[in-house]
Specification:
Blueprint lengths: L2 E3 L5 E3 L3 H7 L24 H10 L6 E5 L6 H14 L3 E6 L2 E6 L2 E6 L11 H8 L13 E6 L2 H8 L6 H12 L9 E5 L15 H9 L2 H4 L14 H10 L3 H18 L7 H13 L4 H9 L9 H4 L20
Parallel strand pairs: 3-7, 3-8, 6-7
Antiparallel strand pairs: 1-2, 4-5, 5-6
Helix pairs in contact: 9-10
Length: about 325
């Protein structure tokens, strides 16, 4: 048990270390935005992408997997999740950098690149891509015991591949895929455009990414330190109130439904493409606000007004950065 000092100088019981981590998921966090990028094993949710694509990646037939989409769509997190799974199964890591990994698993050499659209450690972007695509040069389908997985901007991929004669075969595949909707790529290639994925779903029979992520954030193990016997301010804490209401077997169902429908309106009206990063940030702000436990204790001791931190106000909060991805800043028309 960790005690915090209140504004009056009295020791106040109650500190949940998980709150500190959740606050970094909000994209405009004043403390840290470290949770907005990359793979977080504690809050990562497995989706249809994992169920359908991972078997293709681990198939010896697959030589190249290309992930495109907007920044924040979850490309890097997915690739790092695949790496973690294969490493747990005994993969031999040969090289790891901040932009990718090389490892061997079941006789296949894997190479990943988290961002194929930027320079890296002093190496120009084109040189980074040339090293990555070297085994895909030529006018025939690739052969060999390797699989490459890359996240890259569609425009950069076109610019790099299509005008170079030594990428004749892969160039044709990329050109046909992006220009002819009915084109079926070669069995050795997998193209995935995450810009086409929705984090909310009109099919209420299945759990959407929204549901899966919310369930992950609300799991009991994260909130044990907030129990009344462990925290003096649990009765008045907005975070505990929000988590309890979303978890409530009756009220929580309707609260979730209304919030998802709000996000669904944003999606269907094409007001904004909600990325995985956006969704994580939205839920972080609505559920956890911006204040760590110590500041909540201090504000409560000062009798400060925390009404804006309760979920029903946070959804439409006008406070914060104008680019904040709260629902209120989506400007949904009536």
């Amino acid at each position: 048990m960790i005690a915090n000092e209140s504004a009056t100088g009295n020791a106040v019981r109650g500190y949940n270390p998980n709150v500190d981590g959740f606050l970094t998921i909000y994209s405009q966090s004043e403390r840290s935005t470290g949770g907005t990028r990359g793979y977080d094993p504690e809050t990562y949710v497995e989706t249809k992408l994992d169920r359908n694509l991972i078997p293709r990646i681990t198939s010896p037939k697959t030589k190249l997997v290309i992930l495109t989409g907007n920044a924040g769509d979850g490309k890097t997190a997915f690739i790092q999740h695949v790496e973690a799974l294969l490493e747990e199964e005994g993969a031999d890591i040969k090289k790891r950098t901040d932009n990718g990994c090389i490892f061997i698993s079941d006789g296949l050499t894997y190479q990943t690149l988290y961002d194929g659209s930027q320079d890296f450690e002093g190496t120009a972007n084109d040189a980074v891509l040339a090293a990555f695509f070297n085994e895909l040069e030529g006018d025939k389908p690739p052969e060999g015991d390797f699989t490459k997985v890359i996240a890259i901007n569609e425009g950069k991929l076109r610019d790099f591949i299509l005008n170079k004669p030594h990428y004749r075969w892969i160039g044709k595949q990329i050109h046909h895929y992006f220009n002819y909707g009915s084109f079926k790529p070669h069995d050795s290639l997998v193209f995935v455009n995450l810009n086409l994925r929705s984090v909310v779903d009109i099919n209420e029979e299945d759990n959407s990414i929204f549901d899966l992520l919310l369930n992950k954030f609300l799991q009991d193990s994260f909130w044990e330190p907030c129990a009344s016997e462990k925290c003096d301010d649990s009765e008045f804490c907005p975070i505990r109130h929000n988590v309890s209401n979303f978890n409530d077997s009756q009220r929580g169902v309707e609260i979730r439904r209304r919030l998802e429908h709000l996000l669904l309106a944003v999606h269907l009206r094409k007001i904004r493409h909600i990325t995985m990063r956006d969704l994580r940030s939205i839920l972080s702000l609505i559920l956890f606000g911006k204040l760590p436990c110590s500041k909540i204790h201090a504000r409560l001791a000062e009798k400060a007004n925390l009404i804006g931190s309760f979920y029903y106000n946070a959804v439409f909060s006008p406070d914060g950065h104008p680019k904040s991805p709260t629902c209120g800043h989506f400007k949904i028309p009536h």
